[in-house]
């Protein structure tokens, strides 16, 4: 299956981090992708960062298509301008969406130790669970970055699933899940190439199998 990673949608209402505009899509682009995945059991949707557009733009469009998604907010930015607040987090849960952790701020988890690591990997999911009323056990490391040390730590913390951004196929029940990012230039050609034909998904299975072989050494 394919798992899509979506950032912000529509016109930003805050200053974007450097390079963040690369993963910001228009409402029309999102709608075209959602139309393409409606009814597809071999595609999953995820949203990163906890932008206010998750609730204001994405949520109603997901609901009207009977789609669900997993949302990975930054716990440290809950309630800030341009980001989801506690009420929005509960709205997602009430609509049948799932909540995972993207950390506290947008840091590379491989490079953290001590207090900062505990804040990103422990305090963030705890706060998100308290605000949403649901356990938070899935993680999406910022930048999709991971290494053996980080994966070991996430396993010890009880992570049920970890999402990256390597692209390619994902195993439905895998613990480490590669995602394909939506970029600012997503168009119908991209949608057709990534999602258009189910047979096309399996022609890319070589990438997935090579990743499995590599991870077996971790």
Considering the chains and any ligands shown, give keywords for the structure.
alpha/beta, three-stranded parallel beta sheet, five-stranded parallel beta sheet, 218 residues, TIM Barrel
Describe this structure in words.
It is a single chain. The chain has 218 residues and is α/β, with parallel strands linked by helices. Residues 199-210 have low confidence and may be disordered. A five-stranded parallel sheet has the order 4-3-2-1-8. The longest helix is centred in the middle third of the chain and has 19 residues, at 114-132. The chain contains eight helices and eight strands; from the N terminus they run βαβαβαβαβαβββααα. The chain is globular. Helix 1 (27-37) runs parallel beside helix 2 (53-64) and helix 1 packs parallel to helix 6 (188-196). It has one domain: TIM Barrel (Alpha-Beta Barrel), CATH 3.20.20.
Rg from alpha-carbon coordinates: 17 Å
Q: What is the second-level CATH architecture?
A: Alpha-Beta Barrel
> What is the global morphology?
globular
Question: How much is the average pLDDT?
Answer: 91
Number of helices: 8
Determine the structural class based on helices, strands and strand pairing. alpha/beta
β-strand number: 8
Largest sheet: 5 strands, parallel
The proportion of residues forming helix, as a percent range, comes to: 25-40%
CATH superfamily caption: Glycoside hydrolase/deacetylase
Reconstruct the topology from this structure.
Blueprint: E1 2-6, H1 27-37, E2 43-49, H2 53-64, E3 70-73, H3 86-94, E4 98-99, H4 114-132, E5 138-139, H5 148-156, E6 161-163, E7 176-177, E8 180-181, H6 188-196, H7 198-203, H8 205-215
Parallel strand pairs: 1-2, 1-8, 2-3, 3-4, 5-6, 6-7
């Amino acid at each position: 299956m394919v798992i899509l990673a979506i950032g912000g949608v529509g016109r930003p209402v805050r200053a974007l981090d450097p390079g963040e505009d690369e993963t910001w899509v228009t409402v029309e682009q999102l709608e075209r992708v959602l139309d393409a995945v409606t009814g597809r059991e071999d595609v999953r949707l995820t949203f990163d960062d906890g932008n206010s557009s998750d609730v204001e733009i994405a949520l109603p469009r997901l609901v009207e298509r009977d789609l669900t998604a997993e949302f990975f907010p930054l716990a440290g930015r809950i309630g800030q301008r341009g980001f989801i607040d506690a009420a929005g987090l509960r709205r997602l849960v009430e609509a049948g969406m799932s909540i995972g952790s993207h950390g506290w701020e947008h840091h590379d988890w491989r490079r953290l130790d001590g207090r900062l690591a505990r804040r990103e990997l422990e305090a963030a999911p705890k706060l998100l669970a308290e605000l949403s009323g649901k356990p938070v056990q899935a993680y999406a490391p910022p930048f999709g970055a991971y290494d053996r040390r980080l994966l070991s730590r996430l396993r010890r913390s009880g992570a049920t699933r970890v999402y990256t951004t390597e692209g390619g196929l994902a195993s439905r029940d895998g613990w480490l899940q590669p995602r394909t990012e939506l970029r600012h230039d997503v168009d119908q050609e991209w949608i057709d190439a990534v999602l258009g034909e189910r047979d096309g998904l399996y022609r890319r299975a070589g990438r997935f199998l090579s990743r499995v072989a590599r991870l077996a050494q971790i």
